[in-house]
Design brief:
Number of strands: 0
Largest sheet: none
Strand content: under 5%
Order of helices and strands: HHH
Distance between the termini: 29 Å
Shape: elongated
């Protein structure tokens, strides 16, 4: 599950959520799922920008894409 996200911040996020300790496997699994989620959000955000006739993806595109991907 090698990805591009740095592992230290991911481990920190899990600890800030209440974990006393975080295994390497948990950090790797979280990184994998975060990368998949981010990739899906990015794809939807790009679709929104293209639909609007823009080449630039905006924060609003990303925010709307998160809501769509999460089903909100």
């Amino acid at each position: 599950m090698a990805g591009v996200l740095p592992r230290a911040p991911i481990s920190r996020i899990i600890r800030e959520a209440g974990a006393d300790r975080v295994s390497d496997g948990a950090t790797e699994a979280m990184a994998y799922h975060l990368e998949r989620f981010a990739s899906e959000v990015a794809s939807v955000a790009v679709e929104f920008a293209r639909h609007a006739g823009r080449k630039t993806v905006t924060a609003d595109d990303v925010d709307m894409a998160v809501r769509v991907v999460r089903g909100l």
